[in-house]
Amino acid sequence: MAIKFDDLNVMEISKGGRHHHHSLLSHCTFIASFNLLQNIAMSTEMVMVDEIPFPPQITTTKPLSLFGHGITDIEIHFLQIKFTAIGVYLEPQVVGHLQQWKGKPGNVLAEDDDFFEALINAPVEKFVRVVVIKEIKGSQYGVQLESAVRDRLAADDKYEEEEEEALEKVVEFFQSKYFKKDSVITYHFPANSAAAEIAFSSEGKEEAKIKVENANVVEMIKKWYLGGTRGVSATTISCLANGLSAELCK
């Protein structure tokens, strides 16, 4: 059975991960042990997310640890279509801003949107790495991002001309790209800045970057990937909750 991405409702991608994440969540047990090594030299062992390797630590302006990972997918006629693998990297100090949830199990945190709001607002560096599993046009990904961000802005009565222009620039950035398998999209959110940097790299192509300076648009992009029950990937949110729960218990 041949399924084209165009035949799928891109806005439904966020729903698929919730029922297919048992094997992915088993990886979460590794995250706590990887974070024990955060003060040691970077480990060469990789965390596999649907056969795609993610380093347990990366260095931007400082070392960041992989706290959660997952996929975006959708089920059509009992066939699971996987689109992207996701890794969420945070400063280990993030747990200091989440102490009121200490002792809560991961399954409880995964359903607590106040917890993820606190995570999003914590003044620590955040980095989201997205790797393409199923190739699509960049314009299709851009439409998905645009719809999710615009809907969140409108719901909070923050969708003004400035936000529209900033969001259009992000959509235009993806418009000319083709997301081949293993292409990488990254979102870098500095600790004390309202801006974000988005980068795209694909084999044989020079890395492209765009800076997003509209604080409201940046906030909603964060919420797209880190927004608790409304996040684009339920598997990522669940794994992130488990990883943070383990750190908070130390």
Could you give the topology of this structure?
Layout: H1 22-25, H2 28-35, E1 47-49, E2 52-54, E3 57-59, E4 63-76, E5 79-90, H3 106-109, H4 113-121, E6 126-132, E7 136-137, H5 138-155, H6 161-175, E8 178-179, E9 184-189, E10 196-201, E11 208-212, H7 215-226, H8 234-248
Antiparallel strand pairs: 1-2, 3-4, 4-5, 5-6, 6-9, 7-8, 9-10, 10-11
Helix pairs in contact: 2-8, 4-7, 5-6, 5-7
* Major beta sheet summary: 7 strands, antiparallel
Number of continuous helical runs = 8
- State Rg: 17 Å
Distance between the termini: 48 Å
Low-confidence stretches: 1-27, 29-43
The percentage of residues in β strands lies in 25-35%
Number of distinct beta strands: 11
Order of helices and strands: HHEEEEEHHEEHHEEEEHH
Coarse shape: globular
Structural class: alpha+beta
* Whole-number mean pLDDT: 86
* Widest β-sheet, arrangement of strands: 3-4-5-6-9-10-11
- Percent helix among the residues? 25-40%
